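Re: [ENG-882] Designed sequences occasionally contain unexpected residues at chain ends

Forwarding the minimal case from QA. Structure tokens:
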């Protein structure tokens, strides 16, 4: 095997690599845009009586403002394009309200149907993805569907992935879903949420 190299040949190798890397970095920088992290979608629930972090992504140095329930909070995207604000503690509310996010470049995001209440994480093995409509919770699903009032139970399912390193951005199919779609909720999560709803209502 011939391992002999010379400086002239190495220049030929490194220049195209450097050029390709520079182009990739410039495309990445141009791709920045105002964005909310996955937990923040229409119909979400924010945790009551606690400082609530709202975070997302934008071009480094951009100023981002979040407005909700009479509060206005501002942050600046860091060198990695990350930003976060924290809302002051909120009282529980079944009133559907809007949340506005905007930056100093004229870009904005508007969310609707936002509630304030209890937020719980459900995590486990295959039993956690057993859907309510195909389980012993089927009767509960029918009760919720037949209710004359909008039951304020909602669910977001965060996709799981196998990765060699922590992932910066999570993904979700469809974001937060209202109780009208409870047949597709996790059976265990729905039964717990309904008991909590009855206790707190």
């Amino acid at each position: 095997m011939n391992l002999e190299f010379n400086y002239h040949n190495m220049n030929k190798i490194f220049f195209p690599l450097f050029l390709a890397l520079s182009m990739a970095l410039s495309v990445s920088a141009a791709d920045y845009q105002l964005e909310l992290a996955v937990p923040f979608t229409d119909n979400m629930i924010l945790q009551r009586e606690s400082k609530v972090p709202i975070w997302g992504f934008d071009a480094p140095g951009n100023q981002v403002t979040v407005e909700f329930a009479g509060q206005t909070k501002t942050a600046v995207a860091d060198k990695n394009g990350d930003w976060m604000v924290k809302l002051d503690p909120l009282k529980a509310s079944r009133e559907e309200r809007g949340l506005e996010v905007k930056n100093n470049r004229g870009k904005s995001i508007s969310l609707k149907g936002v509630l304030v209440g209890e937020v719980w994480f459900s995590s486990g093995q295959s039993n956690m993805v057993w859907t309510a409509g195909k389980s012993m919770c089927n009767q509960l699903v029918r009760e919720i569907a037949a209710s004359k009032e909008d039951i304020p139970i909602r669910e977001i399912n965060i996709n799981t992935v196998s990765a060699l390193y922590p992932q910066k951005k999570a993904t979700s199919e469809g974001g937060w879903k209202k109780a009208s779609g409870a047949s597709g909720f996790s059976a265990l999560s729905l039964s717990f949420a309904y008991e909590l709803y009855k206790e707190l209502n």
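QA comment: On inspection the terminal residues look reasonable. The chain has two domains: 32-119, 121-201. Proposing we downgrade this to a documentation issue.
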